[in-house]
Amino acid sequence: MKKVIAIVLTLAMTLCLFAACGKTEKAGTETDAVPSGVEDGVLTVAMECAYAPYNWAQPDDSNGAVPIKDSDEFANGYDVMMAKKICEANGWELEVVRLDWDSLIPAVQTGQVDAVIAGQSMTAERAEQVDFAGPYLYASIVCVTKADSDLANAAGKADFAGKRCTSQASTVWYDTCLPQIPDADIQTAKESAPAMLMALETGDVDFVCCDMPTAQGAVAAYSDMAIVDFAGSDDGFDVSDEEINIGISLQKGNTTLLEAINKVLEPMGEAGFNALMAEAIAIQPIGE
């Protein structure tokens, strides 16, 4: 009798083991497939809504602005325009979520949003955390100073030696470019692009570092500011392509969404990107 019971128990355990193995294999297959996030027909995109001309908030839907989720404000700017193009091409609705800069990557990693379209450089460090579609813009690095400053005629980094400066936190501008300036008096990083520009406007710093689109938006909003561009100079900023190529962050392994977005971006090319950015700068609210 005991032998019969032992045999039955052994068979039962074996069957359970096979069942468990089969279930694990199936679960693994399902888990490995990353959802695109747009199965519901909605592309949920995160951005700061405070980073003109890439993105900003405004009180109404003028110039094609779209509602910001859980807000009575509307989002517009280059990033919104690009998101709308992507949605129109794929038949999706667009939902914009406003998040702080440092919350953007975690939001897409955890699936809180489907994509981040927020002027992010496609750095190797970020690429370890997310997949990038794009680039959707190529942005050279420049400085912005007061138009009546001697720095407005600077010919290279050396002319900014010892001057007070800042930029936005967690950016290539602050972490990589400012330290290249000899004896730069680097002030605390600012939490946003508007805060960075306000530090210049109020005289807290002598110049700021940013990319060309942000600088173009700055001089459109502040008539007393000027762009200093070292392009073609032997004393310009040393940056790699990954640091000036701007991409769209997606959850790791989301190949379906990546391919759908790239199909929209690739035909546009640099000329198309620059033309769309010019439209964004032209409608940017003064003071953004």
General description of the model:
The protein is α/β, with parallel strands linked by helices and 288 residues long. The chain folds into 2 domains: 42-137 and 245-283, D-Maltodextrin-Binding Protein, domain 2 (3-Layer(aba) Sandwich), CATH 3.40.190; 141-230, Periplasmic binding protein-like II (D-Maltodextrin-Binding Protein, domain 2), CATH 3.40.190. The chain is 39% helix and 22% strand. It has 9 helices and 14 strands. It has a 5-stranded mixed β-sheet with strand order 6-1-7-14-8. It has a 5-stranded mixed β-sheet with strand order 11-10-12-9-13. A hairpin with a 6-residue loop joins strand 4 (66-67) and strand 5. It starts with a helix and ends in a 5-residue tail after the last helix. The model is unreliable at 1-32 (pLDDT under 50).
How many distinct folded domains? 2
N-to-C order of helices and strands: HEEEEEHEHEHEEEHEHEHEHEH
Shape: globular
Average pLDDT, all residues: 90
CATH topology of the largest domain: D-Maltodextrin-Binding Protein, domain 2
Number of helices in the DSSP assignment: 9
User: Low-confidence segments, ≥5 residues, pLDDT <50?
Assistant: 1-32
Number of E strands? 14
Spell out the CATH superfamily of the largest domain: Periplasmic binding protein-like II
Q: Beta-strand percentage?
A: 15-25%
Give the class-level CATH name of the largest domain: Alpha Beta
Structural class determined from secondary elements: alpha/beta
Helix content: 25-40%
